[in-house]
Amino acid sequence: MKLKDKSTIISNIVKYSERSILITFDANHQLFSLDWLLQKRSWLLDNISDKLLQVNSTYNSLLVTYNFTINDFYGEKVALRQLLLNANEPYNLGFRSVIIPTCYDDEFSIDAKEFEHKKELSKQDLIRLHSGQSYRVHFIGFLPGFPYLSQVKKDLYLPRKSQPRPKISAGSVGIAGRQTGIYPVNSPGGWQIIGQTPLCLFDAKELKTFLKAGDTIRFKPINRNEYDEIKAEIQLDINFQNRFVDES
Amino acid sequence: MSLKVIKSGPLASIQDQGRYSGLTMGIPISGVMDSRLSTYANRILGNPKQAPVIEIMGQGAKFQFFKSTYIVFAALDADILLNGKPIQAFEIYKVFAEDVLHLKRVKSGMWTYLAVKNGFQIEQKMGSSSYYAHVFDQAKLDNNSIIDFNTSAENFDEISTVNTQLNFSEVIELKCFKLPEFKLLSNSVQYQLLHAEFSISNQIDRMAYQISERLDHQLEEIITSPVLPGTVQFTSGGKLIILMRDAQVTGGYPRIFQLTEDSICQLAQARPRQKLKFSLAEPT
Description:
Chain A has helices at about 35-45, 75-85, 110-120, 125-130, 225-235; strands at about 10-15, 20-25, 50-55, 60-65, 95-105, 135-140, 145-150, 165-170, 170-175, 180, 185-190, 190-195, 200-205, 210, 215-220, 245. Chain A has about 250 residues and is α+β, with helices and mostly antiparallel strands.
């Protein structure tokens, strides 16, 4: 197969605001991957850190925010293009593997019935399918510490609830369309809730998120006793949850 | 003890220019809703632009000072009382221990600001003192909250005049840039967006201002993508939502416009039923 022109990996670069430029990538390009995107993000931050306030990424875009008003958009656009397309040494971004212990008991999986009615999935199949694959964390958005994960298996696709719940408790694991995610803090929300993790995804004291873009995660079914034990340990010392992270 | 909140009113909080370091952790930028007013107030006092100020929504707030300093109150049009006597917005006043400042009535706009010489002394979280519930809840001011500032001995004999140009017309014109999903709209919807008059609904807060009118369109939701304060989202139900300072950092609704910083400030001051129009900030 002939390699597509490298430059076509950039779909477009547009001025987003007075201080921000949005770069959208062709996610179907052979060279495009989550790792590639995160490498480019680091590359931009390292090379033009003196000009930047922040670069935030989503599935297929980077939003570059400068610490000044952009007067010469075309100049910045050319500079960004060059930085993105020039070969650079691959970074070791140190991607981690993380286990998310999850209790799928009825008490927590408040929308399991929806999967039974609409997808003809037994509770067992729901757990098997959801915990039977790994997911990548593409980015953190929506709420402090909320991970956007790669897709669930097709049998688990289920749209959001038509009427969002006023309160979903922190740790709730849900599905919305093809996405699965974990509510880091109490919040209103419309995702279909299938379980709950005792882990703390947003440490409001230290202002740290448990997960980071690039992590590979896997949900591990646990029973209610294990849930309570882990939760109690974390309440004593939040560092207890680091045992679920594999840094290698 | 420097300043005590006697009455906070509907919402009062410490704000500055916000934080960008949390964007990749899902933490909003936050910061002052109307950066024009806070910047003027800080400039008059000779403070840096990012000096923390008290942001007040609505009217009724009351504060008591426990040591002397210089203050500037910033408002579009408000009755402000210092020890019961009216004072002017955008002018320096010296206050002493026991003095009481009362925001009696806000005649125009939504947000007003109290700035003190050298800014309020409050810790920073991720490079900013701005209140945001999940990050810095202590920066929210309730009745009896206490905030510090440094006593200022400085003299303001020669006051630098600051031109506070703030016009507020019957129909505000929001200047904006086109965002990626705008071009996917039909010509007629594009035309309506740029020519019709809209109005602000009752749903307004630090996260977003919603528009009352709905417009039908055929756009589908997008893959979750970055958004910023000032981004105009077009929901599948045809609702227009203008994101404000505490907006989430990513969104799945089509993004059609991005307001200029000045227009975000103008919109921030708009009350429910205020009429508005969108117009392009740059020729295309």
